[in-house]
Fold this sequence. Notes:
Layout: H1 11-24, E1 31-47, E2 50-68, E3 71-77, H2 85-89, E4 126-143, E5 148-166, E6 169-181, H3 191-207, E7 212-220, H4 224-234, H5 239-242, H6 247-253, E8 264-266, E9 289-293, E10 296-297, H7 304-310, E11 318-319, E12 328-329, E13 333-336, H8 343-346, E14 354-357, E15 359-365, E16 371-377, E17 379-382, E18 388-391, E19 394-399, H9 400-405, E20 407-410, E21 415-423, E22 426-434, E23 437-446
Parallel strand pairs: 7-14, 13-22
Antiparallel strand pairs: 1-2, 1-4, 2-3, 4-5, 5-6, 7-23, 8-9, 8-13, 9-10, 11-12, 14-17, 15-16, 16-19, 17-18, 19-23, 20-23, 21-22
Amino acid sequence: xxxxxVSAPGIEQLRDIAGWAARELxxxxxxxxxxxxxxxxxxxxxxxxEPSATCxxxxxxxxxxxLKDGRWRYRAVTPDQVDTVADWLGAPRPAATPPWVPGxxxxxxxxxxxxxxxxxxxxxxxxxxxxxxxxxxxxxxxDSEGAAYAGASYTLRRRVExxxxxxxxxxxxLSRWLRKGTAAVxxxxxxxxxxxxxxxHARDSAKAAFIxxxxxxxxFGPSAAAGFLHELVGHALEADNFRLDSDYIRxxxxxxxxxxxxxxRDDPTVEHGYGSYPADDEGFTATVTTLLQNGEIGSPVTxxxxxxxxxxxxxxxxxxxxxxxxxxxxxANTVVVPGADDPALLLRGEGSGVLHVGGxxxxxxxxxxxxFSFAALNCHYLTPNGDRVPARDVSLVGNALxxxxxxxxxxxxxxxxxxxxxxxxQLIGIGLYSPSMRYAALDWSAA
Length: 447
């Protein structure tokens, strides 16, 4: 655990609260870890050039993880309940508690003028819904062994949904942008670019003509390829899932099951990555973890508890949505190392054509069997004669082990995106970074 103290208003008070609790209650458990948080999240929504909703969510409190009598326990309390943690551990209440001062601001956040989202466009009528999420998160971690960390992060995320009315039907397109850092972030995203990107996807959806069930090569574009592997492999290599030892996870361990050319990492140090941080939510300094390399599994990602239970190396992947939930092993930023293939050549189709996937939507993988089903976004079918036909409402289905064996190309390009990922009721942000990647003979359908 790092002893670094990030400079941010109110961070010292959080450090003092966490350190005080860890010291005062040290003898009440074999091990005690205290997480103090003060986060303000502000969301501003505009529809058709008018403000439609503004929400503020202040999350402040203390989360305590204790190992006592051979069992891990967790308790979360609000600032006015800090002294009750002693009752939970069966210890005398301290005579006094340090004052809880924080209550962060939004680091100078100023939402975009609602009218600015109405970018002038000719053609079919359309609407624009925008959401700006500004988050100022400050936290401190201390434990009964004397380790301590305090940190802050600022995130600004913008999302746009364009609705296009064409031939009496409504079509939707999406776009998003994000900046994240340990200081106030610059809002340098082009509103016009975001709207035009979303509108372009909506227009493609309106022109979609390729339907039915198919089996063809599939090329995932930059970042979409990382999202696909995050679902197929990343979740399986979270330590709590990895120790389930299911048929699918045993299959991943078999010699030859993983492509030797594929290098996959989890990297919380990526600049502006949605999942980036200097230290995780247990105060462990951020490090890059090799998940796959040379056809072999490197290391599952862990938190303190799962590392100890499984006899695994501790990685900096203890993450939580806020103080009310214990930290669990989660991806930070999924990164695929680029290959040497020309991205344009990956898109060549012979006989059956090729599906190009721009992004992934909702879906799931069964970690017991490896069977998966995902919605694919911003898709185009490239016919054998070179035509590029938009495809709408695309679904991808298959078996993860079979799919991994069909990897046949890794591009030399590279791109990134941000997404949210859910696990055990906790929805957090992750980064997705990769080149284009091609798989042979995958099953997909378009409506």
